[in-house]
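Customer escalation, tier 2.

The customer says the design service returned an amino acid string that "doesn't look like it belongs to this structure." They asked us to rerun it and document both sides in this ticket. The original structure tokens are below, unchanged.
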């Protein structure tokens, strides 16, 4: 009897503690959900304010005239092209800072080689080579952002199709995309919405979206949307089909990346092997390794041949799909 009473008391206390734990956990979960909702609302508000502050009347005029102010190839067009590349790489990539880094990198390399060789020809060649070395980093950041946009775009089109099926407009769908999706595609559609909300036509705002992102899939989406607005049809169905096509393109790209993995690994190994071999030679026999630094013309010729080889390999393993 004493054992039964002890078991009953233990079970009662255990159940009471368990029920109290569940109640406290539910309270904390509700509080946590409210905090998450408040933080999300604050984040969305800050994002909207940032987008609105980025849209100025002068920027709108420049966007509206961008399609008609293209000149033949010139220094001005080259500067515009570089600014577009930096924009496509992200908001943190400032063209002025990139140019400053390139100049500093080139000057440091030139002074280093000048103090070592006491010649004017080699530093001149060095500054011409070194000044462009930071540029591939910008293109790498741009490609990373384009890949992120490409992964997000099919889900964006599916959300836009659902919003349109519910009876809302394209601009309302853009607002939903801006609120629901993270960077980089959420702020891009938010900026597009604010541009057309402040006076630009939808066609011009979407065209600016394609120029700002530089994504081929985005151009396909905008082209399909413009054709639908002129000829009519079921826009939600069109967006769903485009989403399916873009997913197939991503699958094909993944297969291409898998098939060319060996070639890319070989390219990286061939580039790293000469530098690794020279460092190993310098560690084992420094006097013999220093002889190479007395012939900078051979060094630059070798680097040039390596660069041409890299471009050749890249041409082989990269193709349109």
């Amino acid at each position: 009897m004493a054992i039964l009473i002890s078991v009953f008391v233990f079970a009662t206390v255990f159940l009471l503690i368990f029920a109290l734990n569940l109640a406290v956990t539910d309270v904390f979960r509700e509080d946590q959900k409210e905090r998450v909702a408040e933080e999300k609302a604050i984040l969305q508000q800050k994002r909207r304010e940032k987008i609105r502050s980025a849209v100025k009347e002068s920027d709108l005029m420049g966007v509206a005239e961008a399609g008609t102010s293209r000149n033949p190839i010139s220094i001005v067009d080259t500067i515009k092209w570089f600014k577009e590349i930096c924009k496509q790489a992200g908001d943190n990539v400032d063209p002025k800072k990139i140019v400053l880094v390139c100049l500093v990198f080139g000057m440091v390399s030139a002074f280093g080689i000048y103090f070592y060789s006491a010649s004017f020809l080699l530093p001149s060649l060095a500054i011409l080579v070194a000044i462009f070395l930071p540029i591939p980093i910008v293109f790498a950041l741009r490609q990373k952002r384009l890949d992120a946009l490409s992964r997000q775009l099919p889900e964006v089109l599916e959300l836009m199709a659902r919003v349109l099926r519910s009876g809302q407009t394209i601009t309302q769908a853009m607002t939903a995309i801006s609120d629901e999706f993270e960077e980089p595609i959420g702020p891009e559609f938010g900026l597009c919405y604010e541009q057309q909300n402040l006076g630009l036509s939808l066609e011009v705002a979407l065209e600016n979206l394609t120029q700002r992102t530089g994504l081929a899939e985005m151009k396909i989406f905008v082209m399909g949307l413009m054709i639908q607005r002129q000829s009519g049809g079921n826009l939600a169905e069109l967006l769903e089909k485009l989403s399916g096509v873009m997913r197939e393109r991503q699958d094909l790209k993944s297969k291409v990346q898998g098939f060319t993995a060996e070639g890319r690994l070989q390219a990286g190994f061939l580039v790293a092997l000469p530098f690794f071999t020279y460092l190993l030679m310098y560690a084992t026999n420094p006097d013999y390794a220093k002889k190479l630094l007395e012939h900078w013309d051979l060094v630059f010729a070798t680097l040039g041949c390596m660069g041409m080889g890299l471009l050749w390999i890249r041409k082989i393993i990269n193709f349109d799909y």
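Tier 2 assessment: The sequence is consistent with the input. Residues 27-56 form one domain. The mean pLDDT is 77. Sent an explanation to the customer and offered a walkthrough call.
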